[in-house]
Amino acid sequence: MPPTPTGLLCMLMRGGTSKGAYFLAEDLPGDPHERDQLLLRVMGAPDPRQIDGIGGAHPLTSKVAVISRSTEPNTDIDYLFLQVGVETATVSDKQNCGNILAGVGPFAVERGLVAAGDPNTSVRIRMLNSGSLATARFPTPGGIVDYNGDAAISGVPGTAAPVLLDFANTEGAACGRLLPTGNVRDMIDGIAVTCIDNGMPVVLAEARDLGVTGYETPADLAADTQLQDRIQSLRLRAGKLMGLGDVTDAPVPKTTLVSPPRNGGTISTRTFIPLRPHASIGVLGAVTVATAVLLEGAVGHDLAHLPAPGTAMAIEHPSGRLDVDIDLDVTTTPPRVIRSSLVRTARKLFDGTVFPRPL
User: Fold this and answer.
1) Residues 25 and 165 reside in one and the same domain
2) Closest listed residue to residue 255, CA positions, set 224, 240, 222, 277
3) pTM above 0.85, yes or no
């Protein structure tokens, strides 16, 4: 039903290391412009504090998931991710979000879009931003979503029930191919980079090439305005090379600086979204970085401590690590991604009526 003057149905959820407002598509305006204007009022943007809305004053907590039953065969749910600006009146559908994805399956069961199994439920999800497919598997003992469990993920306190995410068709999700420039390595502003898209357009560069160690805290990186200027120059030029056009106001490509691992993992990362340092790393960003370091000649390949075949890759980030399984066929040119998978957690925070800021 359309939103009423008094409010609309909303569920606030933590998905992975992000937090967002989840809506049924039928509860939002069908016109994208009207929908986006409403969501800005719901989240309280533009405002650096988002004081008059439910946004958390950070890109990681100013996110929206729009869910509906899918009409496609072999798919249960359609999921549209929207990144709502904090200080800007922007709503972007130019990227996926694998963290918010972790809550989509449980939300679909909670809203009755998918029948729950016992003891687990699998939900096949079409990510409308890219057309990629994901399957989420999570516990539903007795046909009820159980958010409690013993799975821990870096960047989230405590434990929760595991949500296993399997991805398919993420290769070239936004750019059309895994290596959008046609090269494993390019030079931009005198810096060696790898431009890659396995679910998230990412520009990889070695941290030392930009004058940092790659082990700084997000706060230290945020204070380095000269570094952010260089990051912006890299991503603007990379965006055009990757076929994304002018990305001045776009959230992608992300830039990830890589360094040798410090804590027993595969590679150490510091990611910018797009200029603000990430407190951890995005799900599909981690999948894309893991894919890159498997490619001989790519930035980060020589820095990585690659595990034995069939073993998860541990992507280190400021809050800990994110383990990713990548099945990559490197015998083809270009390489072909067969599948990617990882474990996230999610939790329902509230379910009720949200009241948008008045016009």
Assistant:
1) yes
2) 277
3) yes
